[in-house]
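Practice problem: predict the structure.
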Amino acid sequence: MKVTNEINLAEFNAWQGAEDTQETILNEGKEKQFDDLINELYSNGLTATELNDLLWFDSDWVYKQLGIEGE
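Answer:
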């Protein structure tokens, strides 16, 4: 299932460590910027697991791309 072309970050049900990254992005008001970044980098979309892993294991990279100070 490809998720990023069908739903946005606020609608995604992240699990485990990805939940913290998702919450930070939403609290910082960077949801649209994140969605645009993912759609640009992954034009064919991502699976739910790929998106979750990106949020969980690459949070520092995601924060840097969005201009969010590290946790």
